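Q: My labmate handed me this sequence with no annotations at all. I'd like to see what the chain might look like in three dimensions before we decide whether it's worth expressing. Could you predict it?
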Amino acid sequence: MAAAIEVWEQLDAVLSEGRRTPADVLLGKYFRERRFIGSKDRREISRQVYGILRHERAQAWRMEQDGLGESPRAVVLSGLVFLDGLGLEELSGLFNGDSYCPSPLADAETVWVKLRTGEPLLHEAMPEPVRFNFPDWMQSQLGELFGEQLGMAMAALNAEAPVDLRVNTLKATREEVLAALEAEGLKPVPMERSANGVRLQQRVVLPATRAFRDGWLEVQDEGSQLVGQLVRAQPGELGIDFCAGAGGKTLALAATMENRGRILAWDVAESRFKKMKARLVRAGADNVQRRLLESEEDPFIDQFREAADWVLVDAPCSGTGLWRRSPDLRRRTSESDLDVAVEQQRRILESAARLVKSGGRLVYATCSILRRENEGQLDWFLSNHYEFECAEKLRLFPHEHGTDGFFAAVLERVS
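A: Here is what I predict for the chain of 415 residues:
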């Protein structure tokens, strides 16, 4: 309990200082500095922190109504009562002042626990953004998008995501991967929509599996896999992954192309981009050429004007489709962040459009559920680029498809 409280103190400090450190990065640093914490305790601390993040606004509302305060201790205590269903006897054993345990419950805390034990977290008086844990400024956009399905959609975005894997067909078949994971005591199942997808329902230490170490698989949400398949990359083509990041889709496309042809993998964010090199080696993907760009309008880009068979723009975005995996994105994303993302997406699309040859494909994708970043950008682009036509669109939501939230559009250059 003390560790969960300490982590929450750090999360609050990061936000109050205007920093945007993701929760998983903060937790990773916290555990590295405390190597004495065992793997079982690490999992439990992470579970508590992420559980609170998924219900943060509802918990805060209940705490404010009850006068419990907003301290990290009160937040963790509230989570144990509302999310884990613990009562006074169990909590008294956890809050006992011993080593690595918080101090005993105060009289006011004891009264509160007795009052709220067994009650559901959600209350009928809660406003929608509080009940469904999303920022106030998104209410009109999400309401317009989902209508009567808002509650169902938000519940799916608030649920913990499964472990999705993509088979690296450069090294193995899906049947071989399924057999290898089963041999290690796991329970993999083949995905329905992605031909190379495998799903695990429980968290595992994947680097400990032989299939992962040998490069047979990569962690990748099924929705992301479907976006990569939408590129329709073919062996021998010249393709450009304009916003390659750490290389998730780059690796998938290299496998689809059977290591034949060439993929130019570009990005402007060095911190994520540098992680790709080791992944390429492990996967055996050798038709990828990496380059860190100075900006979305780097002069280097002009060397490939109208040369690419396909260009994938997996654009930087609000990440609202990833709330299942990164629930803290809700607290780290502001309305001004969305404005900045929309402008950056347009700059990238303008640069990427110049690279597509006649008859080639520009695939625009985001991991956002917001129309401003998706249909809105598609309408803007087509109204300014008559040489392109929309050939196909893809919309994915957790409550309908069991994937993260994604949008993608295939734009063919017809002249």
